[in-house]
Amino acid sequence: MMIHPQYDPVALALGPVEVHWYGLMYLLAFAAAYGLAWYRSTKREGWTTDMVSDLVFFGALGVILGGRVGYVLFYQFGELLQNPAYLFKVWEGGMSFHGGLIGVMLGMLYFARKYKKTPFQVLDFIVPCVPTGLLFGRIGNYINGELWGRVSDGGYNWLTYFPQAAGFDMQQLQANPELQEVMTEVNGQYLLPRHPSQLYEAFAEGLLLFLFLWWYSSKPRPRMAVTGVFMLGYGLSRFIIEFFRQPDVDQGFILLGWVTKGQILSTPMIIIGLFLIGYAYKRGIYDWGKHAAY
Question: What is the rounded distance in angstroms from the CA atom of residue 207 to the CA atom of residue 6?
Answer without folding.
Answer: 24
